[in-house]
Amino acid sequence: MALAVALGARGLGGVWPNPAVGCVIVCKNRIVGRGWTQEGGRPHAETIALAQAGEAARGSTVYVSLEPCAHQGVTPPCAGSLIAAGVARVVTAIEDPDPRVQGKGHAMLRAAGIRVDTGVLADKAEDAQRGFLSRIRRGRPMVTLKLAVSFDGRIATASGESQWITSPEARRRTHTMRATHDAVLIGAGTARADDPMLTVRGLGEGRQPVRIVAARNLDLPRKGALARSARKVPLWLLHGQGAPADIAQEWADLGANLLPIEERGGLLDPQAMLAALGQAGLTRIFCEGGSKLAATLLAADLVDELAIFTAGIALGADGLAALGVLPALPLAETPRFDLCDLQHIGPDTFSLWSRH
C-alpha cells in the first residue's frame, strides 16, 4: 500500500478533476502490475496495472490507494474491470467520498465474491488525496500558500525589489511544487508588479498548471507575459461582477477564461473564489501572493498548508511585509499550523506547515 500511495502521488497536479490514485497487483508474493492515474485523469491506475499484469492478475491481491470507481464515465468502472480480471482480494486505503462511488465500488467487489479489506495506511492516503477530498467534502480545493521571505518576514524592499530574496535552489523547489498543484494563484498587484509567467520551468515537458489571477476590476497589463501566453497555457481571471465589460471581452479575445465572483466589502469573496475553482474541478491550488491575497485567505481560514522559504537576509521595517493586515484576534483564537517538514534548501530554509 505504501508503494500504491507513492505511485499515486506521481499524478498530483496533472489529473484533476480526478483523484491521483496508485495501484499495485501482487501474485504469489511478486508484483505483477502497477500503475497510477495518467495525465488528464485517465486511464485510471487500476486499468494501467491490470494491463501490465495480464493473466497474472487472476487470483491476485490488488492494493489501491482509493476505493475503485463504480460508475460508468468516459471509461468503464474500475471495480468491474477488477471483477472481470478475476482478482481474489482488493485492499484499499480509504473509501471514495464522491457520491457516485462512496462504498459502491467496495460493494460491487464483495457481491462478486472478492475479499475486500479497507483502511490500510489510511492516514497516508488521506494526506496524498487531500486536494481531491477537500473538493468533494468541502466544495473547494486545498490551498498551499507559498512565501519567500527574509528572516525578518519581508517579501520585498521598500522600493519594491523582490527578485531574488531566496536562492536558485529555492526557486527550483518552487517549480517542483507548482508541478504538483493543479493551479497557481496570485493577486492583481503581483501580476502588475512582477509580470510573471507562473509556468513550471526546468523540469522537462509536462502539463502546465492553470494560471489564476484574482483581479476584481481586471486591471491587469494586457500586453504582459500572461496576456501573451493565454492561448498556450490556461489563464483564468477571477473578477468582480462589476468589472468593465469591454475589458472582460478583451481578455476573452486573448484566450483567458473569466470567472465572475461575488464581492464582499468591496473585495472578491474568498469563499466564493475557492468554491468557483472547486466547481471548475480544481483540487490543489498553489498561492504565490501577494501579501494582500495571502492575508485574505488566512483571515478566511482557507489556507491548508504554508510553504515558507526563508533567506538569511534582513530587509528592515520599511520592507514589504509578507502578509497584509489580519483581523485582531486573541492569541488563543488565532489559527495555528503544525510543522510538518523543515529542510535546508541551498543557503535557505524551507518549512512546511499544515492546518488540520
Describe this structure in words.
By secondary structure, the chain is α/β, with parallel strands linked by helices. The chain has twelve helices and 18 strands. It has a nine-stranded mixed beta sheet, with helices on both faces. It has a five-stranded mixed beta sheet with strand order 2-1-3-4-5. The two termini are 24 Å apart.
Keywords:
single chain; 356 residues; 18 strands; five-stranded mixed beta sheet; nine-stranded mixed beta sheet; alpha/beta
Biggest sheet, spatial arrangement of strands: 11-10-9-8-14-6-15-18-17
Q: Average pLDDT across residues?
A: 94
Distance between the termini: 24 Å
Poorly predicted runs: none
- State Rg: 22 Å
Overall geometry comes to globular
Strand content of the residues, in percent? Answer: 25-35%
SSE order, one letter for each helix or strand: HEEHEHEHEHHEEHEHEHEHEEEHEHEEEE
Structural class determined from secondary elements: alpha/beta
Query: How many individual helices?
Result: 12
Number of strands: 18
Helix content: 25-40%
**Biggest sheet details:** 9 strands, mixed
